[in-house]
């Protein structure tokens, strides 16, 4: 029976519910925001733990971020992984996908054992969907994206992935990497016992300065909130008003 060493990667992101948008400039107001584990990564964490429950082995949660992201460790460890690896540096505040993938690859290849790496489909902030495939490329291992089901058999990972034509089933020799869709599972809610146990689990901390320099391939110039204009027009229940409402739908292209 295969007992894989599983790594699950996650990101500590701004809670979108706390983001405010300045109505005049559309600039994001981030002075009173909280952070949380990206929702997509919660599915990745849950899937890693479920695979461990099924096949045995180990689960290590890995993240890269600023020193403030250390607050995420108790949360992630309460969700099932038995240990974590935290890569931190004040300069990691604005990492873009190629940097994140390079940092994770450097740490994983030099400090951790792995058979399977699981990432979320994208992150809750940038949602670039690049870190997983880039990480696999940097490590030189096969990968599959948009995965909705995972099984492990005879040293291979069997992944069902969603494509435009339907469901594609692929088999990859371990070690391999998958990025998972939110529909793959429903993440568990940690209980008090889980939270208390998380404080006793081991954490490997690595300073970003010890890894070298990782130059960005992408520069974010500005992030603006979406502009939504609403006319707020009211329609009555009379036949004439219903006709006017249908006419408005045709005009806006909602119905053809």
Briefly characterize the structure:
The protein has 256 residues and is of the alpha/beta class. 27% of the residues lie in helices and 28% in strands. The chain has helices at 39-55, 72-78, 97-111, 131-139, 192-198, 239-252; strands spanning 5-9, 12-14, 20-21, 28-29, 35-37, 58-65, 83-88, 116-120, 143-153, 156-163, 166-173, 176-180, 203-207.
Structure write-up:
There is one protein chain. The protein is an alpha/beta fold. The chain has one domain: 3-Layer(aba) Sandwich (Rossmann fold), CATH 3.40.50. It has six helices and 13 strands. The chain has helices at residues 39-55, 72-78, 97-111, 131-139, 192-198, 239-252; strands spanning 5-9, 12-14, 20-21, 28-29, 35-37, 58-65, 83-88, 116-120, 143-153, 156-163, 166-173, 176-180, 203-207. The strands form three sheets. It has a nine-stranded mixed beta sheet with strand order 11-10-9-12-8-1-6-7-13, sandwiched between helices. Strands 2-5 form a two-stranded antiparallel ribbon. Strands 3-4 form a two-stranded antiparallel sheet. A hairpin with a 2-residue loop joins strand 10 and strand 11 (166-173). Helix 2 crosses helix 5. The N and C termini lie far apart (57 Å). The model has no long low-confidence stretch (mean pLDDT 89). Residues 25-215 form the Electron transfer flavoprotein alpha/beta-subunit N-terminal domain. It holds the Pfam family ETF.
